[in-house]
Specification:
Blueprint (H helix, E strand, L loop, with lengths): L7 E7 L2 E9 L6 E5 L7 E4 L9 H26 L9
Antiparallel strand pairs: 1-2, 2-3, 3-4
C-alpha cells in the first residue's frame, strides 16, 4: 500500500551535473508538480493544474510516472527555452 508520493522526478545531466527539472509529490495531501524555472534560477513553480487528483496514492504515483514518460521532451524543451539554451550535451 502506498501512503504518499514523496518524489517522482525528471532529471537531466547538464554540464556533468544532475539537475531536477520537474518533480511530483503529495506532501500536502494532494499531488502537485514542482518545476524549476531555469538553469540559472533555482526558483520552482508549484502547481496542481492539469494534475490528476482522483483515486488513491497508487493512482497518483502511476499518473506521475506516466506523465513524465509521456511529456519529458516537452518539459525539457520548455526548460531549455527558459534557460536560453538551444541544446546541450547530456551524457
Amino acid at each position: 500500500m502506498i501512503l504518499e508520493v514523496t518524489n517522482v522526478s525528471y532529471e537531466a545531466l547538464i554540464d556533468k551535473s544532475w539537475l531536477t527539472i520537474l518533480r511530483y509529490d503529495s506532501t500536502h495531501g494532494y499531488l502537485h508538480q514542482h518545476t524549476r524555472f531555469s538553469l540559472t534560477q533555482e526558483k520552482e513553480f508549484i502547481s496542481k493544474e492539469h494534475i490528476s487528483q482522483s483515486g488513491s496514492h497508487q493512482d497518483w504515483l502511476t499518473w506521475a510516472i506516466e506523465d513524465i514518460k509521456t511529456n519529458f521532451l516537452s518539459y525539457r524543451q520548455a526548460f531549455f527555452n527558459r534557460s536560453d539554451l538551444d541544446e546541450i550535451d547530456e551524457y
